[in-house]
User: Fold this.
Amino acid sequence: MISRNDIQRLLHRPAEGPPVLSAFLEMSVNSDNKRTHQIFLNQQRTRIAELADDGPGYDREAIEAALDRIERWIGDEFREENKGVAIYTELGGPWFDALQFPVPVRNRVAIGDVPCITPLAQIIETHHHHGIMLVDREHLRMMSVYMGEPLHLHEVTTEPYPVPHDIQAGGYSQPDFQRRKAEEVRHFFREFALEVAEFDRRYRPDDLVLLGTDENVKHFLEFLPPALQAKVAHTDHAPIDASPAEVVQRLGPWFEAQREQREREATEVVRDRVRQQHLAVAGFPATLEKLQEGKVARLVLARDIERRGARCTRCGYYLAAAGECPYCGGPLRDGVDLVDAAVRLAEERDVPIQFVPAPALADLGGVAALLKF
Assistant:
């Protein structure tokens, strides 16, 4: 499963190595029960000359060898349950890295001095990590869900008081037994709350979801410490013995609604702030400038857009226009992927990124940023 650690590893690949071919392949099975990635790879082979002309040192034979290497990896290493892959290979060099994941990605091949990370960042930032708790009076089942896949399954077992066939013969009156069972539930819920706290500390989900009967969920919520109560984003009814797949299916509409809500809120905030000219900028020239000055608090990017610009070969500054670097006077290299540059700058500075539908930022140039100051 991919994570921000993978992006950080790619960011720290030495920049002085050979050019890198980055390939992102949609590996889902279509309606004919077939994968179509090979068609896309074959298309890339027909445009090797075009790819080689994109930059200096992009040797045609090296590109063909890189595509061969990608196909061999897919044949040897790809796991059939996944729906997307990201593969990185140097042109003429030994470095190679590959990732596979359970969500689809748009087919794309890019060649550059550094690995392209935008498609990975888009997947990671779009999918939150949810902690799911199924609870009843005697059981607690915990799992985390990321990219639609259940992870980290834990179950807490208890030893409830036995129910006597004859309460009076067992030495307890009905009210006494009910009081003991109520105290038992409180004891179990206190233990369950400690287990949830440990689960949250260990796996650090973005939010928590409580499932069970309305009564049990409401009662158990009272036993969680305030910090965990604040992380509970959703409650719902579900049987305690629901399988992980059933839980994911049940929560699927809520996961999607949450993603759409996050995108709407990010779009509304940035558009409002840009309109008021209050600690916000829009468009690639202004956004790149603020990113490189370290003034961005949140980057908002249109999904799947492309934008080319330039980078100074002397000081490394990114610019939306060609010409001469206004900062050091150095020469600029044209054809640089500005979208990936913005994502790279944000990831290097630990700036949160929110990807939104392209139409939402069309009139803002496809990118905007909230500023720290």
